[in-house]
Amino acid sequence: MQYLNPILNFCLKVVASTLYQLVAIFGFIFIFGLLLYLISRSTRKAFANSNLGKLDIYVTGWIGTPVHETGHAIFCIIFGHRIIEIKLFAPSRLDGTLGYVSHSYNPDSFYQRVGNFFIGTGPIFFGSFLLYVLIYFCLPNYHEVSNLISTNEFNGAGIFEFMKSAGDIFTFGIKLTGSVFAINNLSVLSFWLFVYLSFCISSHMQLSLSDLRSMWSGFVSILILFFSGNFLAQLFGFDLTAYIFHFSRFLSTVIGILILAILISFINLIATYVVLALVYYKKHRRLLPIL
Predict the structure, then answer these.
(1) pLDDT (tens digit, 9 = 90+) per residue, 93-123?
(2) Over 60: is that where the pLDDT of 157 sits?
(3) I need a surface site. Which of 69, 73, 135, 246 has the fewest CB within 10 A?
């Protein structure tokens, strides 16, 4: 029995380190991905309740859907998956899909299995990249907005103190909104182009059920990779956590852009509901249902 305690402590350290590192690096994807999903779902619901579901497809879907599917396709290429068929924008009346990327991979390849996670979350990363590009080309105060995004103090490890950081995140969101929607920007045509395109992109960054299935299958492989790495590290008296924590700090820019995406999606939801509610009230003389 005296030999069990060191073994048990060793195993607990490996498991704790693995979970800590995974949350530090990938926790923000799940949290912000969930928020994007809930906001986008509410926006779709508003269109559906107003019997104008098709309008949503052609107002934002014709841009947002190709961006979404391109995000999948890019990571298919990066991780060596074979793209069987791709439809960037093909609305279907049967299942409601707007587009898809059909791909295959070698299940014996660990690298390609890991790729499933990034292929599934591709729309979040690619959408964030395009939002940053739009900031650069469309906003007159690009330097102010980009500096605010890139110099925020949020990082993956901050997920552990999410409730403690909630006030800081809210303050950052207010500053970012004020910077993007600055009064001087309102008179510039490129700003309104940014507003429309960012509405389209951010409202389609959410993940579908098939995306989530692909993501989880890849996450299992990532879990095995981290567990194996920590097992070997602990075996030789080496701690990977400090290095993982240091790496997570490079995620602050991505987190800043995702906060912007959530803000834009929320503004889009409010604007969409107000417009649809007015149209719905004029026609039916009652409020548009929210749920």
Answers:
(1) 776 778 889 999 998 899 999 999 999 999 9
(2) no
(3) 246
**What is the total count of domains within the chain?**
1
Distance CA 275, CA 52 (A): 12
Is it the case that residue 46 has pLDDT exceeding 80? yes
230 domain residue, yes or no: yes
Q: What is the domain extent for residue 184?
A: 4-284
> Could you give the CA distance from residue 152 to residue 169 in angstroms, rounded to a whole number?
10
Q: Of all residues in the chain, what percent carry a pLDDT higher than 90? A: 22
